[in-house]
Structure formats: structure tokens, C-alpha cells
Sequence to fold (792 residues):
Amino acid sequence: MSEFVTQEIISAGMGGQGVLKAGLLIAETSMKEGYNVSWIPSYGPEMRGGTANCKVVVSKRPVGSPIVTSPNVLLAFNRPSLEKFEQSLKPGGILIYNKSLIEIEPKRTDLKLVPIKATEIADELGNTKATNMVMVGAYVKATGYLNPEKVKEEIKHMFASKPQFVELNIKAFEAGYEAAEEIK
Amino acid sequence: MEKVMMKGNEALAEGALRGGCQCYFGYPITPQSEVAEYMSRRMPELGRVFLQTESEVATINYLYGAAGAGVRCMTTSSSPGISLMQEGISYLIGAELPCLIANVVRGGPGLGNIQPAQADYWQATKGGTHGDCRMIVLAPNSVQEMFDFARDAFDLAEKYRNPVFILADGALGQMMEPVELKPFLEFDPHKNDSWATTGAKNREPHVITSIHLEPEEMEEFNRHLQAKYLLMEKEEVRWEEYQTNEDDLDILIVAYGIASRVCRNAVDDLRASGIKAGLLRPITLWPFPKAEIRRFADRKIPILVVELNMGQMLEDVLLAVEGKTLVDFYGRYAGIIPSADEVVRKAFDTLKKVGK
Amino acid sequence: MEKKKLIRGRPDALNDKIMHYCPGCGHGIVHRIVAEVVDELGIKDRFVGIAPVGCSVFAYWYFNTDFHQAAHGRAPAVASGIKRARPELIVMSYQGDGDLAAIGTAEIVHAANRGENITVIFINNAIYGMTGGQMAPTTLIGQKSTTTPLGRDPRKAGFPIKISEMLAVLPGSRYIERTTVTSPKEVNKTKKAIKKAFELQMKGEGFTMVEVLSPCPTNWRLTPKDALKFVEEKMVEYYPLGVFKDEPVFND
Fold:
């Protein structure tokens, strides 16, 4: 595994893509692995018009502000999210973007790119609603600080009230993990 | 105990009901509507009262009625809604009624925005209300403290027969963090029977009122309130210090709430670059930890105040230091929470001003 | 030895105190009616009254029951807060026209519409009494007050508001009646209405209100006798007496 750096993450997309849950899964698993974490969603008028995002901080020291303005990781689920947040990424930051819905290429040249056909992968597994798990799989692989088995445990926990979705979501997570490359 | 991820607004609600809250009254306003939503589900589960009223003006008066009836009750709102409640808050203080009021602050003035801010400090600590009013103002800086302070607030309110005020902000309300959910508090539901409107059965009637037409009587009542306030100042000041042990501290940062979290990291970063920095975080904004801040002023340690406003607590710090040391200020506003780097840069700037 | 028989005494729910109300004022009569009803229903030990802002701000001086003084216009909210906190109590909001029909319209409308299980006694004397005779929302067209010295002109000062009619159309109100206290007969009718209102509250049937047209000789600049005549002739003409609503709110 690579050496841990404080993760300041923005997970963004449109309503229904599960961007908030993706962030929460990262935060919950990281909490259980002993990190300090915070999660905060966009709220108010920002939520209207179908866009949603959340900010997650995972840190070895206590979390200062939960609001992330310059992330080092962006999970862009759709094109407007890429366009909105690409410029805010820190130099050398990780851009995980959903190739299925983003036909353009990122403009920045100082980023580590993780393109992934998340929606298509989820669709092949039976439900595009699992797109977010594919994205989290890619995140876990790219950042390398979380044990994927722990994430799967957390998925089971997260979907405890809807057990019929556990398998799909774990498969989607695994597929995302396989499809992405670890950033060295 | 196991920790769960929880939103600040929900932790506040859960804390309050575990503290014995029997009635919640509220009106939706961003960024605190999750409190009402959570209560609308949880309170009926526990056989308690939840009501969405027609306005904040009505809300505070429902609270006034329920508090007068001697039950543990609360409301929450955000800045403009709290402004609407001010008349009722004055009545609650004037009639000496315990209750909990929480403000999940957003940007102002006017309709402002819905992002986290600390610009209601003056309103909370110096009274947006009429009359000589004081309330204990608790400023949590984590989701855990949203839970803890709400849970403990009713005991504190009943101790002084005075409302207790929690001053949070949009970030603390909206963010999720790990929380340890402490158990339900034990309390005496008949504690307020000696004065509450419970029905005059086998006793003299109880009257809840704040009117004292005779000047002597009004003055006497205010002396009584002052005595309570003095006792609060003596017994309830709460604050937290971080890395303030050395005698020759280079700089003291004073910050509360969400800003104090960033400043804590800034203290670490300053220390990593050889500056002996410390943090003093007021937990009660009223009563304010004056004497504790003066200790540093007496030693001529320069102070940097960091807030999410244009300088409100700053005035209390200035009063506390009595001109004995340099007090500098750094403020960001309404959704812009400074980074630790920004605070570090500002701290170097402050140090330059004192020739360090 | 001379035999004496007590025909009518002071109700238990009233204190032995001289009231501060002006001669000819209706408040004292309505206080007594409420107290008699409280006695008759045996609810003195679970009764809470709300005193408003206005001439009756000190109503609790006279009632031998628990009382809670409210901010101007907010009595229905305070009453409902108490009732929600302690449903076993019988709660009365006692309000004047400035309090209820101007500054407190939002609270009275929503308390009625939510079917809050409280009883409101609404004293309508078409004037602000305590502050010295200014125009009330219920001041009649052409009626002089200290802020309508030439008489109320609806083009400038709007129309007198008919609260009972207004609240009666709300689905949440249970019982609304307008009465007056200008004669023993009317006093008895008022008492019957107030008693019915409290009985409905005791059964948990919801929001009840009795609007009482009441004289204010001092601020109307009339003798007590002429003030009664003003109620009977002018006020009743604009504010007709009677039951405006009497139907169960919930059918289950």
C-alpha cells in the first residue's frame, strides 16, 4: 500500500447516482480503520437542478474544516461535475471519472487520471444504481490505503436493511477495484 | 462504546431527547431542518410531542407555554428564524423558564446565505432580546458535542431556571462524524412542580409572568436575575486549551466552534515550523472565559482571534485583555472556512507585528 | 333571628379582589362567567388560563387558578404549548381584539386550523383599551378613536375584521359562537356558550372560541349605559350574534 496522505475528497454527480452514499462508504470504512473522518453534503439550492455532491475528509489528525474547497481526490460521476470541480483539484490530485457519461477529456495535465466506465460496468452487473460502488472500487484501488475486504464488510452493513442489494453492490465494488489502477 | 456516523443536526436532536426533551416545536429553515425531520420520527416513537408550527414567532411561544408547564422542551432554528424568536426569548428569561434553544447559524445579514457562519455571536451572547437578558451559550465544535451539549442542556437550564442556548453553525449541522451515543439521562420529572402550571390541585395557583409594573419591584427582579447571571459567570465558564503549557508561548490563537478545529491544526503546523503556538477555545461564549484569556495577556503573549465573521468575539477578547497585549484578527465568512495554512500565514503576520 | 340565604356568592375560581377594570367594562362580567363555569365543571385544579397583553394582562390577579401571561398576540401558541405538554389540563386563552385580531392573527388562525384542543375567549370591544383608545382591527367604520379622530375610513384604515366568521370556515375549528353581555339574558347565553366550549375541550374535540362583544365606555367616551346601547345597536349590526360553527372536526 502507498503511504497515506490526508484525503480531501469531493464526490459529485447527479441526483440518483449515489454520490452521497459513495462518500459515506469511504468515510465509514475509513472511520472503522481508525482514521478521523468527516462527511458533509451539498445542501439547499445547490441540491436543486439534479446535482449533488459531498465532501469527505479522511485524516490521521483531527479533521479541521469538513468543507473541502481544494480536493486531492475528485470522483466525477458526470460531465457537469468534472467541469465544475476539475480546476479545484490540487496539483497531482487524483481524478476518478465516469467514462460512461463523460465523453470529454480532462483539461488538466498535472493530475493522476483514473477513467472508469462505471455506469456501463454497473449496467452489465444488472443495475446502473450500483455505479457509485464501481466508483468507490476505483477509489480504493487508486488510493491504496483501505483494505478492500473491509469496504465489502461495510457494504454489507450499509445495505443491511436491503439484503437483496448486497451482492450486486459488492460485485460492483470489486469490478471497479479490478478495472482501476493503483496510483503509485 | 461504539461510534456511529451521524449528522450534527441529528446528533443534536438525539442528544436532546436523551436529555429528557418531552416537546419539540419548530419551523423548517436551512441548514437545520434535519432536526425537525428527525424529531418528527423519534418523538412520537417515544410518546413525546413533535409539532411543526406556523412560524418561528409561534414556535418560541409554544416553547414558552410548554416550558411554563414545567416539561423539558426545545426548539432549533437558523439565524433569521432566531431573530424572529427574540421577543419570546426575552419572555422566557423574564419568566425564568428553563428550555433549550439552538441556532445552527448561517450567513447574514438579511436572508444572507445558508452556509456556515459565526455571525450571530453578538445576538447570542449580548442579547438580540430586550431587557437585561443573559443565557448560557454553548458552542460545540464537533458532532459529538452537538449530542453531548444538547443532552446536558436541560439540567443546566433547570439549575438556573433560564434558557440554555447552543450556538452551532451550518457545517456542524450538516456534517457527519463519528459519535458515541451516551445513554438516556435520568432526571426528576417533578423537579419543576413547585412553580409550573400543572393545575392548582391542593396548592396555591402558580402564575408564570414577566410583568412587574412597580419600578421597585422591576428593579428587585432584575437584581435577582443579575445574581443568577453572576452565579453562572462563577460556575459555568467552560473552555479548552491546546498546547498552552509553556511559559514562553509565541502566540495564542483564540477560536470557537468550527473555526477552532482548523486552528488546532494550525497550532500543530506552526509548531512544526518552530513557532510555539497555543489554542484557547471558549466553549461557553457566555459566560466568556475572560480570566483565562487575561492570563495570557498578562504575559504579553500576542493573541490571534479567528472567526467566521468580521470580528465579534474579538470584542470580548479585547475586553478580557484590557489592552495588555496585541490582539489581531482573522475572519472569513459564510461558507468560507479558513484552511490551517491560511491561519498559519496570518499567525506569522501577527508575529511580525510584535517584532518576532 | 333573621334568616339569611346565600343566593349567589363569589365563585371558587375567583379571588376576593377588587378588579382594576373601569366601571361598565365587560371584562369583569366575562371573568365571572368563566369562573362560574370552571366551578360548575369542577376543573379549577386542572385549569390554566393565558393572560394576554391588553387590559386583561393581570387577569391572573382575579382567577384562583394557574395562569400564564403571554406576549402580545401569542396567547393561542402559549395555550397550545401548555396543552400539548400536559393534555390533562384545561387551557383557556383569554384575548382582546388588538391581541387576537391584529398582531396575533397568524397564531389564532393556525391554532384553529390545527384544531388545537384549547378554548379561546375573545373579547371584542372594537378598541385598544390599555394603550388608550386607539383603533382596533375590529373598530367599526366611522367609529372615532385616538388614531382615527375623524372616524375609521376603510379606504385608509381598512375594514373591521370578522374573526368568528373567518375561523368558522377553517376545517379545524370545532365550535365558534359570538355572544354579548349587554343584558342578563345575553350574559346567560354567553355563559352557556363558554360552558359548551370547555365541555368540548374536556372531550378532546378541538378548537373552540367564544367571541364576546363587550363594552368599553372609557375609551368609547360613553356612559356605561350608552356603551351597552352602542354594543346592541352598532356592534351587533356589524357583528351578528350566533353560532358560526358547531360540527365535529374528525368523523372517526
Remarks:
- Chain A is about 35% helix and 20% strand.
- The radius of gyration of chain A is 15 Å.
- The longest helix of chain A spans residues 19-32.
